Fold:
Amino acid sequence: QQQVKQSPQSLIVQKGGISIINCAYENTAFDYFPWYQQFPGKGPALLIAIRPDVSEKKEGRFTISFNKSAKQFSLHIMDSQPGDSATYFCAASMIGNFGNEKLTFGTGTRLTIIP
Amino acid sequence: DAGVIQSPRHEVTEMGQEVTLRCKPISGHDYLFWYRQTMMRGLELLIYFNNNVPIDDSGMPEDRFSAKMPNASFSTLKIQPSEPRDSAVYFCASTPGHLYGYTFGSGTRLTVV
Structure:
């Protein structure tokens, strides 16, 4: 129930195209859904996050779409650029007693943007 | 703000040796996490602290691993004795709390030969 399933494992998109990464979860108690971006040799960095009371959040070219009934959320990168080439992780967490405040990460998607 | 600081950046050690990884969280962040990243297992949470107290160490692989947080600005992850299968990138992360996201350090790449 703590798992977050992420797909695809890898993704190749042409420059200027839309990159879409999907995640699904089981635990309805999750209430915070961030996305992290990781470049080689670096730690993951928070990219954008959403709470389940909204269906979409947009920051620049990055958008999270959230479907509470389907227990799914996705990251859309519009006008994808070579500099977006990185590994992306979805994650989920819930507030509660100590022991339930840790993030559960997806398995990651390696995104490559080709010219 | 210098972010989360980890040292060393790279560590190469022989099997059986003791390894100590260090982390300085962001000032004011009450939570500190240790993660391990490998190609096979992805990001694994090893242990986390709240206000210097270990809260959940269920991810620590075995007794060879130990972690301490003697004060709010310093934490260590120790492996004794080290084994080749411990080779991975170890990340430290901190956060002021739920809904704020984590700030990760740059990691320590550990190679045990």
In short: The interface with chain B takes residues 32, 34, 36, 41-46, 49, 51, 89, 93, 95, 98-99, 101-103, 105, 107-108 of chain A (CB under 8 Å). Residues 13 and 113 of chain A are 5 Å apart (CA to CA). Chain A is about 0% helix and 50% strand.
